[in-house]
Design brief:
The protein is mainly α and about 475 residues long. Helices cover about 65% and strands about 0% of the residues. It is elongated and about 110 Å long.
């Protein structure tokens, strides 16, 4: 300090020299320390204006330099693990500074040891005969705030996630590239919420000026913004580790600032990964919030299949489906009418359709679903078990019709199943009325009342009793 003060005079002259950028980095650091001494000693020799300059500009700069120095010291001295590297495996990476032949093992204990064991040979930092040049080159690479991200990239690759998070906390560097690396560390260590927040922060400020982010983003897509492309790349990256919860949060949060025409894609991604991760309520909300009807319909079909096969029938039928209840009915009807009754066991779509209508208090539709199920069983599935299922269907249909007003207690015979009555338990020439059947096709719709259903029930009770008796 005395040497610098003698060269540049009193404090006022010294401050002006620093402000004009006369010194290089290490001399500037020394000058800043002198400024701190002046300030702490009642500001002797410094004008009021220069005192303000020191407080507003120089002291914050000095604090930044000291913080970076402490980070560098932490990198050089912090213990990592007791991993043992043999000299033969890694001596080539140390160049001429490798372990001597007499030493068999090196037990690195700091971040620096681990970094050097995987990094390039020291010769690339400078002339290895000049140790000072090598050290300066290495320190320049490790120095916080430098353009290179080799150290944080190494910590992530080596899966030192906690060290990378601590490094990011210490450097207080909010550059998008470094924030992205720290977000990956949080995601990999299970802190999904923090990771999502950091990914969102990067997405809002992302640009291609960083070589690291430019490589991560790949070729820009003219059909989407950089923010959306970054989000989609992050989702692809998280998919490799099956981090479904993080993907759901990221896609949902992104809808807050991404253009609305891309919302269907984000909601579909959130739905897909919520369903795969077992977050059924979240999957339903993502499906319900999707503004695109075609993508919502595709999600709905997947939702029905996954929940029915997983045995979540009760949860499936009790979701509200506000605004797309008709689509839900159409999906269940399609699944039921195209199901193979010979193989369907637990995931019985007719039962789902019936339960859905009952849960929404649409008893007439529920009765029709149960009746259609009975007709298909009667036609396609022989045997005592089928007869028993038919009885249950007829009873269910009767019960539903008895819950509504008498004048409305009827259903229409399914048109696509209108030939079933002719094929089973009926005369091929005459209907119940006794009149001959017309040979021409008719479009007349048959009304099925509670009385008709009771007759069918009694007939099937008799058939069931006879079948059981024959087996005995």
């Amino acid at each position: 300090s005395s040497g610098i003060n003698a060269e540049y005079g009193d404090g006022e002259c010294l401050v002006r020299a620093v402000d004009t950028g006369v010194f290089d980095a290490h001399k500037t650091f020394a000058v800043l320390l002198v400024c701190m001494v002046f300030v702490e000693n009642e500001h002797r020799g410094i004008s009021q204006a220069d005192q303000t300059l020191i407080r507003r500009n120089l002291l914050p700069e000095c604090r930044t330099i000291l913080d970076r120095f402490h980070v560098l010291q932490w990198v050089l001295s912090s213990a990592v693990s007791d991993t043992i590297y043999t000299a033969g495996e890694h001596s080539d990476r140390f160049g001429n500074l490798a372990i001597s032949a007499g030493e068999k093992e090196l037990k690195p204990a700091t971040i620096l040891h681990h970094y050097l064991s995987y990094r390039q040979p020291l010769a690339e930092y400078g002339d290895i005969t000049n140790l000072g040049q090598v050290v300066v080159g290495l320190i320049r690479e490790l120095y916080p705030g430098s353009e290179t991200l080799d150290l944080p990239c190494f910590l992530l690759t080596a899966q030192y996630f906690e060290l990378l998070k601590e490094y990011y906390r210490r450097v207080e560097d909010t550059r998008p590239a470094l924030t992205h690396l720290a977000a990956q560390a949080h995601a990999a260590s299970g802190d999904h919420q923090t990771a999502v927040g950091m990914f969102i922060h990067v997405a809002k400020t992302v640009d291609l000026s960083s070589e690291f982010l430019s490589t991560f983003m790949g070729t820009p897509d003219p059909k989407m913004t950089l923010s959306l492309q970054y989000i989609l790349n992050c989702i692809t990256m998280l998919e490799r580790s099956s981090l479904h919860a993080a993907i759901v949060s990221l896609a949902t949060e992104a809808t807050q600032f991404v253009e609305t025409n891309h919302h269907p894609l984000l909601y579909s991604l959130a739905f897909k990964h919520a369903l795969e991760g077992g977050q059924l309520d979240t999957a339903y909300r993502s499906m319900a919030d999707n503004p695109c009807s075609s993508q919502k319909h595709a999600c709905l079909k997947r939702f029905v299949v996954v929940l029915s096969e997983a045995g979540h029938a009760k949860r499936l039928v009790h979701y509200p489906y506000h605004g797309f209840q008709a689509e839900m009915v159409a999906v269940l009807e399609f699944k039921a009418r195209n199901s193979d009754l010979m193989t369907v066991s637990q995931n019985n779509y007719y039962s789902l359709l019936y339960a859905f209508h009952v849960s929404k208090k649409m008893y007439k539709h529920a009765a029709a679903a149960a009746y259609e199920h009975a007709l298909r069983l009667q036609c396609e599935l022989p045997g005592v078990e089928s007869l028993q299922l038919q009885l249950y269907c007829f009873l269910s249909s009767i019960s539903c019709l008895q819950l509504i007003q008498t004048q409305e207690a009827w259903i229409l015979e399914p048109t696509q199943l209108s030939d079933i009555r002719i094929a089973v338990n009926a005369s091929p020439k005459r209907p119940r009325s006794g009149d001959e059947r017309s040979k021409k096709a008719t479009t007349k719709l048959n009304l099925i009342t509670v009385t008709d259903l009771r007759k069918d029930y009694l007939i099937h009770c008799h058939s069931n009793t006879s079948s059981i008796a024959s087996l005995c």
